[in-house]
Amino acid sequence: MTTQDVELNLELSRRKLLAAAGIGGGAALAASFVGNRRGRRRTPSSPLPDPAATPPVAGLHLQFGADASSEMLVSWHALQPVRNPRVVLGHLDGKLEQTVEAKAVSYTDAKSGQIVYAYHAKLGRLQADSSYLYAAMHDGAEPEFATFRTSPRGRAPFTFTSFGDQGTPTLGKKYVPPAGVTLPNPPYVNDNLGSPAAGDTTLGVERLQPLFHLFNGDLCYANLAEDRVRTWWDFWDNNSRSARKRPWMPSAGNHENELGNGPIGYQAYQTYFSLPESAGQTDVTRGLWYAFTAGSVRVVSIANDDVAYQDGGNSYVRGYSQGAQKAWLEKELAGARSDHDVDWVVVCMHQVAISTADMFNGADLGIREEWVPLFDKYGVDLVVCGHEHHYERSHPIRGRESNATLTPVPAATTTDEVDTTKGTVHIVIGGGGTSAPSNQLFFDPPQCRVITAVGVPDQTTGKRPPVYVKEQAPWSAVRNAAHFLWLRGIQRGSWVRSRRHHHDQGHLL
């Protein structure tokens, strides 16, 4: 079958899906949509919706529910309310399976006063390891189509990718020259630590076509941008190319903390994403920690600003959950490790317990105090992080030294085979596209600067300066300039790895 035949069959399936759902004028609308994509003129029977009256379906993306084999969330957003937001779901032949109403949520950006509306449709009762065709729509707007695949159930192979610290590939403000320098036409520059690489990494994910992507915090650095809403829009314009076809499952980083957007700053993040519900959360902490199961892997996403000492966001929020997240995490890890159907426990978070980069953020003692003992106790296999803008992998670590920095102890030091039954492997993958890499700042030989406390707020910036203590880094195994990681696995045990194209590629065997 040729590529043209495949495209034609998919277009016919899209038309059948809308017609089967009883969408008024669905067949004509879908035909018009197809025709427009191929450069044909629209007919009077299918007029173009007025964009001033009806916003398009923007930023289409997916998230798994708690059971990735049977639950999927479809999300999009707009800058004004829409009527009748819903998702129609079918098989790749266009046979309708269900129509689901989307729930509306919103937030008002405190900096611009702009209201953002997001729409989330939860699809349930899905078949495991199956492909689906869906369309997101609201009245008056053209439907946006995409496909997705659910997770297998039980011990079956799949691939996932991971990185953090992406930013956007777009330009957000005019360059301000140094004092005394005048430019007649100042160029536009990026204002949120993004770069063209932020677009390349999205395409890199699609080249591998994983089941899902773990996004380890600092998604788009909107808190740094002149226009925070525009930056989120740019982020989704870039990543919807992938996230509409496979879930991008996030953790909240310090740059998701936007001043005035909710009591602790995460309201934008909490509006754009609809993540599995978790015990101990309130309206303020909704969605900041969660877990889901894909195959025999339990993925646990946590929000480190709750325990980290570093003052890295727009407001200092250490301790915001008052212990609720830690209580949930211990119960979650205990349950996962006692579940005979779970072979691997993977944690996704932002700030790090390890790093050998000098003059950057460093490791955080708060994470070593609060999270690492739980990882040891319940045998977490893998922790993926961002925050440091380079690639680094630890040896399996278990236990800690009795010193000021609680230095992790390597349980094994081979690099050709990594056995996670001996300890937890930490991987820093903070090169998702940021324009401020740290891969040229490595200590040689490896050392680590650990934030052990913060000082009094600076009178100019209001920030609490970090207090560093330096340590040796016997736990450091591999360092390079990689941007992201892909993993494929079916059973807990040893991790045989090879390196190609500067990516650490793991097969969990």
Report on this structure.
With about 500 residues, the protein is an alpha+beta fold. It contains eight helices and 29 strands. The chain has helices at about 5-20, 25-35, 195-210, 230-245, 265-270, 325-340, 365-370, 370-375; strands at about 60-65, 70-80, 85-90, 95-100, 105-110, 115-125, 130-135, 145-150, 160-165, 175, 190, 210-215, 250, 290-295, 295-300, 345-350, 365, 380-385, 390-395, 395-400, 410, 415-420, 425-430, 445-455, 465-470, 475-480, 485-490, 495-500, 505-509. The strands form seven sheets. The protein has a seven-stranded mixed beta sheet with strand order 13-12-9-27-29-28-22, with no helix packed on it. Strands 14-15-16-18-23-19-26 form a seven-stranded mixed beta sheet, with helices on one face. A four-stranded antiparallel beta sheet has the order 1-2-6-5. A hairpin with a 7-residue loop joins strand 20 (about 395-400) and strand 21. Helix 3 (about 195-210) runs parallel beside helix 4. The radius of gyration is 23 Å and the shape is globular. The relative contact order is 0.11. Residues about 25-50 and about 490-509 have low confidence and may be disordered.
Major β-sheet profile: 7 strands, mixed
- Low-pLDDT residue spans: 25-49, 490-509
Number of helices: 8
Strand order of the largest sheet: 13-12-9-27-29-28-22
Rg result: 23 Å
Strand content: 25-35%
The 3D shape can be described as globular
Ends: how far apart?
Answer: 35 Å
Share in helix? 10-25%
Please tally the β strands and state the result: 29
Query: Which structural class fits the helix and strand makeup?
Result: alpha+beta
Mean pLDDT: 90
